């Protein structure tokens, strides 16, 4: 069995003290670039992985950025993570992911565990948290960026879109095209606060313009093409007069399109459809579906940029509250 190398062995091979080797591997500013490169090269060639827990006792943080999202099962959050990873790629920081499952109590436990590792930053999806979580975020020894949503009271930095406004924008688009008998199908309701806000904005805009929502389905389970297909069929059986359906996600609207194909319904003449997120799954469909671009990759990139800038400024960065503009693509289904 190969002997496990310790830090003192790496230091000896590099011809430096154990303290210098430790500081080199933590990218300390008082170690020369040449020494850092030599120590890192030797460590990598021997498969040595630094003990970040031990290093954090002196540096107060590890080179990890905690990213907490509600799910990895959808197509939504992987693109956010891609934006984070892309921006951190040329820095010493690396993302580590936790999943809350749309459960605020679980989110609290995930964030507590992640903060115990003293990360260099924390990026968390959403503005709704338990009171304990809000206190942890407020007292964190690292920059905290809440992402995806701007309709609420952020603890620190915040970057996202207004989901209330996104819902209103889609309602205006549908009304401008002459639709009046309109339905809504949403999933993860009411756990998905952002989908609930889009629904509220959508209904508020319809009401402001004198139109009542004809039917709604607020499904507690997750999004899938099959669920979209089944719930569309259920709604049309219940309310055959429906002209247009707004879905809480693109995945569901694809299911709606599948139902129309099987039922022989023409889109948009018999039924108009619109989803949300502008997911890659829409590319290559026989009919371009209406959607809203939720700026997912841009949000991930901007959040990582805020963490890096706060790190450079030693935590003295003023709170950033940045609202990105969602954009509707009407496709050919409205």
Task: Based on the model shown, name its key terms.
12 helices; transcription; 334 residues; single chain; Rossmann fold; alpha/beta; transcription regulation; six-stranded parallel beta sheet; four-stranded parallel beta sheet; 3 domains; Peripla_BP/Lac1_sug-bd_dom; 12 strands; HTH_LacI
At a glance:
The chain has 334 residues and is of the alpha/beta class.
List the helices and strands and how they pair.
Elements: H1 7-14, H2 18-25, H3 33-45, H4 52-59, E1 64-69, H5 76-88, E2 94-99, H6 104-116, E3 121-125, H7 131-139, E4 144-149, E5 157-161, H8 163-176, E6 182-186, H9 193-208, E7 215-218, H10 225-238, E8 244-247, H11 250-263, E9 272-274, E10 291-293, H12 296-312, E11 321-323, E12 327-329
Parallel strand pairs: 1-2, 1-3, 3-4, 4-5, 5-11, 6-7, 6-8, 8-9
Antiparallel strand pairs: 10-12
Helix pairs in contact: 1-2, 1-3, 2-3, 5-12, 6-7, 8-9, 10-11
Protein architecture, described:
It is a single chain. With 334 residues, the protein is α/β, with parallel strands linked by helices. The chain has three domains: 7-46, no CATH class; 64-162 and 296-329, Response regulator (Rossmann fold); 164-293, Response regulator (Rossmann fold, 3-Layer(aba) Sandwich), CATH 3.40.50.2300. It is 44% helix and 16% strand. It is built from twelve helices and twelve strands. It has helices spanning 7-14, 18-25, 33-45, 52-59, 76-88, 104-116, 131-139, 163-176, 193-208, 225-238, 250-263, 296-312, and strands at 64-69, 94-99, 121-125, 144-149, 157-161, 182-186, 215-218, 244-247, 272-274, 291-293, 321-323, 327-329. The strands form three sheets. A six-stranded parallel beta sheet has the order 2-1-3-4-5-11. A four-stranded parallel beta sheet has the order 7-6-8-9, sandwiched between helices. A two-stranded antiparallel sheet has the order 10-12. Strand 1 (64-69), helix 5 and strand 2 (94-99) form a beta-alpha-beta unit. Helix 1 (7-14) crosses helix 3 and helix 10 crosses helix 11. The longest helix is centred in the C-terminal third of the chain and has 17 residues, at 296-312. The radius of gyration is 24 Å and the shape is elongated. The model has no long low-confidence stretch (mean pLDDT 92).
């Amino acid at each position: 069995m190969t002997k496990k190398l310790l830090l003192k062995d790496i230091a000896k091979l590099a011809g430096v003290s154990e303290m210098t080797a430790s500081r080199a591997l933590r990218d300390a500013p008082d170690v020369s670039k040449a020494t850092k490169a030599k120590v890192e090269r030797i460590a990598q060639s021997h498969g040595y992985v630094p003990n970040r827990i031990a290093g954090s006792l002196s540096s107060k943080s590890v080179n990890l950025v905690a990213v907490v999202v509600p799910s990895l099962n959808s197509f939504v959050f992987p693109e956010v993570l891609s934006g984070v990873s892309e921006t951190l790629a040329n820095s010493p920081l690396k993302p580590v992911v936790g999943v809350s499952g749309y459960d605020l109590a679980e989110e609290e436990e995930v964030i507590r565990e992640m903060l115990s590792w003293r990360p260099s930053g924390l990026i968390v999806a959403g503005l709704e948290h338990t009171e304990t979580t809000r206190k942890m975020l407020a007292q964190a020894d690292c920059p905290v960026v809440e992402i995806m949503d701007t309709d609420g009271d952020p603890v620190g930095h915040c970057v996202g879109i207004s989901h209330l406004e996104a819902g209103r924008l889609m309602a205006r688009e549908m009304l401008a095209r002459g639709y009046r008998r309109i339905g809504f199908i949403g999933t993860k309701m009411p756990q998905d606060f952002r989908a609930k806000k889009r629904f509220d904005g959508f209904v508020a805009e319809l009401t402001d313009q004198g139109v009542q929502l004809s039917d709604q389905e607020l499904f507690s389970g997750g999004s899938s093409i099959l669920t979209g297909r089944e719930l569309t069929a259920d709604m049309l059986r219940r309310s055959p007069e429906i002209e247009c359906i707004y879905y809480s996600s693109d995945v569901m609207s694809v299911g709606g399109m599948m139902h129309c194909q099987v039922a022989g319904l023409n889109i948009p003449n018999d039924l108009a459809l619109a989803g949300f997120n502008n997911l890659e799954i829409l590319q290559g469909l026989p009919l371009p579906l209406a959607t809203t671009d939720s700026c997912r990759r841009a949000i991930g990139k901007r959040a990582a940029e805020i963490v890096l800038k706060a790190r450079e400024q030693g935590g003295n960065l003023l709170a950033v509250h940045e609202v990105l503009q969602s954009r509707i693509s009407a496709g050919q289904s409205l």
